[in-house]
Write a structure and sequence with these properties.
14 strands; 2 domains; 223 residues; single chain; alpha+beta; Apoptosis, Tumor Necrosis Factor Receptor Associated Protein 2, Chain A
């Protein structure tokens, strides 16, 4: 009212009464203030991790959701390391060599684990990208899926899981969702359900896994 401005949070605290003129505050956009905020440029919160982007105030949240320097947490149990995905990949390569299984894109590799093991950490040999094979024991069997550790903008990976037991085979193909930390029970409707019968002596199973970049997968698996 009368040219005075207040943010929505302050309006609620002031019971929608203007502190300058005591008149009621209406739900009206202040175009002048919005233009000032739009013209203001601020640094990304991931600046200390290497991001040099400056964005308008209104686009800050959208940028930081997809920023390639968004912080990621080390997936190895007991490790509290947090940094950009690039630094995290280097950290795993130098600190947790024995805790991860290394692989190469486009190559099928065996991954063994017990029915109760919740996850396996995998790291690509050349680019260092980190993936998590999640395993959750359910009534019908084990729910298994693969995710990528990185910002949401990382994306672009497809994978195939196959299980074999006594002449029976299961094959599953999907894309890897991206998470910035390890999630023991990631929300997804895309997973491989492996019946308990596939787990042999010692409740252990070996799956064959292959991961492709999106462009490589499209080339080798045309529609």
């Amino acid at each position: 009212m009368n040219g005075h401005a207040a943010c929505s949070s302050c309006c609620s605290k002031l019971a929608h009464i203007c502190p300058s003129c005591s008149l009621p505050i209406g739900y009206i956009h202040c175009l002048a203030i919005e233009k000032v905020l739009e013209s203001a440029k601020i640094s990304c919160q991931n600046m200390k991790y290497g991001c040099k982007e400056t964005v308008s105030y209104s686009k800050k949240c959208d940028h930081e959701k997809s920023c390639i320097y968004a912080t990621c947490s080390c997936p190895v149990s007991g490790c509290s390391f947090v940094s950009s995905s690039k630094q995290l990949y280097s950290h795993l390569s130098s600190t947790h060599v024995s805790d991860v299984k290394h692989f190469e894109y486009d190559c099928k590799i065996p991954v063994s684990f017990t029915a109760s093991k919740k996850f396996v950490v995998l790291q690509e040999k050349k680019e260092g990208v980190v993936f998590i094979l999640n395993n959750a024991l359910q009534i019908m069997g084990n729910v298994i899926m693969v995710s990528c550790i990185g910002p949401s903008s990382k994306g672009g990976y497809f994978y195939e899981l196959s299980a074999n037991s006594k002449g029976n085979s299961l094959i599953f193909r999907s894309f890897t969702p991206c998470f910035r930390s390890r999630v023991d029970n990631p929300p997804s409707v895309r997973f491989l359900l492996v019946p308990g019968g596939f787990f042999g002596s010692g409740e252990k199973v070996t799956l064959d896994l292959c991961i492709w970049r999106k462009d490589a997968y499209s080339f080798h698996h045309p529609k």
